[in-house]
Amino acid sequence: MGCYLNRSVKFFYEKSGKNISDHWSRRDYVIVSLGMTVCFIVIFSNLLVIGAILKNRRFHFPIYYLLGNLALADLFSGVSYLHLMFHTGPWTIKLSKYQWFVRQGLIDTSLTASVLNLLAVAVERHQTIFNMQLHSKMSTRRVFVIMIFIWLVAIVMGLVPTMGWHCLCDLDKCSTMAPLYSRSYLVFWALLNLLTFSIMVAVYTRIFLYVRHKSKQMSQHTTQMRHRETVLNLMKTVSMILGWFVICWTPGLVVLLLDGLGCDKCKVLRYEKYCLVLAECNSLVNPIIYSFRDKDMRRTFREILCCLCQRGGDKSGVSGVNFNTLDHEVLSESNGTDVTSLKQNTH
């Protein structure tokens, strides 16, 4: 079976049944407008998060480094998707195979990095909570090794199709959604992300069960109302993390699996771009869940937006870092103490 290395992108699209129109349809305009709007919001919000972490020395802890890396991945995701918006629809015909692989590789790399960073945050929270700490004792060097490893894996995942896992020499194995990709690669990528999601579910479920158990043990030292409030807050946070991840990623992963398994009757082309926009929305939700709920982070955002360079800032000796998603809820309930005393004991 011969290779088609000299054929154009249009050739592979036609062979896979994904025809490219020479002019813009209403659907194309809707998708591009929606996608570009999401991209600009994603880029702006994650730039704020990165700027806040760099600006405020109070955020120089392992969890915030991981959040910064997550924001960097989501920022890269926004830029990659914006690049896709300028190379989609009728513009796709003008792409060379190399440009097409670069376009898809950027998307694969950014989304993989985002998912792996979410997993790293979950594992860090698990370690911190089970050791009854406000902040992880993980060294800065180890954190940066983890961050570099995440990006290496993500980059490799983006380069794998270019390095040979494609269908340029076997048209029967070509995907319908990504006509130059092999169906087997789509199945592998989707299953890898589903595995990552399953591990996240297991980690956060174990955290919740542990906290509920500890809160019952310590309930005699706290009021019933406080005990109930802590458990409800934890349930809300975990539900937000997992719920939004499921909402944003499940449709896209299901469509990828259906395409990879060769489901010709599933009409994946009708939903693919909407699913990709939805997956990109997870990069918008991440800074809201992990950062915007932090009081000190919001305060730093205001300082950045108002261009208030307050040198010296808070001159008190106690750090005001408040990661208000899991650690405060867990530690305040399990130890039966307030957040202030936890901070003082920690530092």
Automatic annotation (TrEMBL):
Mode of membrane association: Multi-pass membrane protein
Keywords, alphabetical: Cell membrane, Disulfide bond, Endosome, G-protein coupled receptor, Glycoprotein, Membrane, Receptor, Transducer, Transmembrane, Transmembrane helix
Major location (coarse): membrane
Gene3D superfamilies, per the entry: Rhodopsin 7-helix transmembrane proteins
Name of the protein in question: Lysophosphatidic acid receptor 2
GO CC field: cell surface; endosome; plasma membrane
G-protein coupled receptors family 1 profile domain sequence ranges: 45-290
Molecular function GO terms recorded: lysophosphatidic acid receptor activity
Pfam families reported for this sequence: 7tm_1
Subcellular location as annotated: Cell membrane; Cell surface; Endosome
Species this chain originates from: Hippocampus comes (Tiger tail seahorse)
Taxonomic lineage of the native organism: Eukaryota, Metazoa, Chordata, Craniata, Vertebrata
PANTHER family according to UniProt: G-PROTEIN COUPLED RECEPTOR
